[in-house]
Amino acid sequence: MSDAGSEAEGDAAPTIGTYEGSRNDQSERHGQGKMTFPNGDIYKGGYATGTRSGSGTYKWAKPVAVYSGEYAEGKRNGEGRLVFPDGSVYAGQFEKGKRHGNGTYTYLNGDTYSGAWSNDARHGRGVYTVAATGSKMDGTWEKGLLVGDGKVTHADHILKAKFVNGQPELPATITFTSTSYTMQVTDRALLGQSAIAVGGAGGDD
Asked: The whole model's pTM is what?
């Protein structure tokens, strides 16, 4: 989802929409303003020498979505909150228009991921929580998948294993929380539902 709109044309294309607001001596959009695009999208907020800069809000007309936060050089950059068309929400850091840094993504089904992001994907240290059960997948993520040493905490037991492409490798260990008994698992069938599916349903592609 892009909020570049026709604004990539800059002030050299005055027919790309309707602008209301401040301009500098070079007639560039500069300061506070409101831009209404031909497709119905609306941006309201700061500008610097013709591009979005500082705090602002971009509203997509179709499909309906909203970004509120910081901009730099015309792109989402810094702290912000992006509500996707399906209702899922990302709140956190952006860089050059992408989710990048630390942030929390809340999926349509209530699942959440809180942690590091890179180039719009879960990447780095983070925790994925399943809303329906409270189960948590904790570890290091790479391009959206859990990798390396990871831990999955359920209501009655904890799975620890090395993960490859989001899946636990054998051997693994399971510790039962009621007794603190730990068993080593070498049969994948014994893992049952110890590993949880991530992704929920939402704009986190």
From this structure: 0.88
